[in-house]
Amino acid sequence: MKLFENLYKSVGIDLGTANFLVYVKGRGIVVNEPTLVAINNRTNQILAIGDEAKKMLDRTPAHVTLIQPLISGVISDFEMTQEIIRYFFSKISEHSLFSRYHVAAVSIPTNLTEVERKSVEDAVVSSGTSKVLLVEEPIAAAIGTRLPIEEPTANMIVDIGGGTTEISIISVGGAVVSKSLKTAGQRFNDEIARYIKSEYKLLIGEPTAEALKINVGSALPVDDKLEMVVRGRDVATGLPKEIIVRNAQVRTALQKSLKSIADSIKAILEDAPPELVGDILERGIHLSGGGSMLRGLDEYLERELQVNVRVVDDPLTCVVRGLGIIIEDIKKYETVLSNQEKPKPVNL
Distance between CA atoms of 123 and 118, rounded to whole angstroms? Predict the structure, then answer.
């Protein structure tokens, strides 16, 4: 039996639009890399996956394409998704002959259709897993944050990932009200790049836009003088150009996206039962995901919503940590698995 456990292990997979994270039972988080594949179009050969592929972003010749196989949390390239999973499975296997996993708990957005859910299951199974358990991202994030989701009280979590923002009010082990937005980390990058092009007539790539967001971006004005030198291509001349971008400009670029998230949270609160809204007023709103690390975002949402908002510990990994907690004790969390048969109601 011990040998069987060594050969067939359980894993948790945060199959994110921007990042791919894997938790192996008994070992913890073993993979945290970008969900990117670099492919040679002439030979159809995969050149790099993960961190190595990201180094090539916006720096490749015409015959090399970087593929992001998930868009807004949905698999858009099934074959490349398989390749990513297989690559990381082989990378983390202790024995090259035995790379098969017994159970994989996989995070998914709340609004996936049955066809999209089946696509996720098929991709993971075909990559070397016997059984796939789907867990909605807000529930995985809440478990990773150690919120008491089984209790009859409201736990509101806003998970701002790369491709989607998942907003959910959870009570008694399930989501009472949920909403999935396509406004998230990558939209922030796009808005910044669009603003720089509009205001400065300068074209920049996604890596530069992301660096601006991380280094000088904020949701509210900050006391520190934050600015960054940005280099790109002048729209008019086509020649290289260098400018200095300040915090206020990045903040202006992000305002539309931030307001969209705040308005969606308001809409969820309006749809929720009054008792749960009362719980949220008492317990507050929890922010997770990489997007929640934007400076001042918690304070911005507090002002907009009039509710306490806090960023959870290590927001980047809380979803995969939640999946890890689930696979360490699957029986305890059976009721939160979205592709398992729901328990029948009991007539009292």
Answer: 9
Count, residues in the chain: 348
In a domain, 51, yes or no: yes
Distance CA 132, CA 143 (A): 18
CB 105 within 8 A of CB 12: yes
Residue pair 101/8 in contact by the 8 Å Cβ criterion: yes
Q: Identify the sign of the CA torsion 55, 314, 25, 71.
A: negative
Residue 238's domain is classified under what CATH number? 3.90.640.10
Tens-digit pLDDT profile for residues 86-105: 998 888 875 444 456 678 89
Euclidean distance between CA atoms 301 and 228, whole angstroms:
26
Average pLDDT, the chain: 88
- Contact between 263 and 256 (Cβ < 8 Å): no
The pTM score is 0.87
The reply to whether 82 falls in a domain is: yes
Query: pLDDT tens-digit profile of 134-150?
Result: 999 999 999 999 999 88
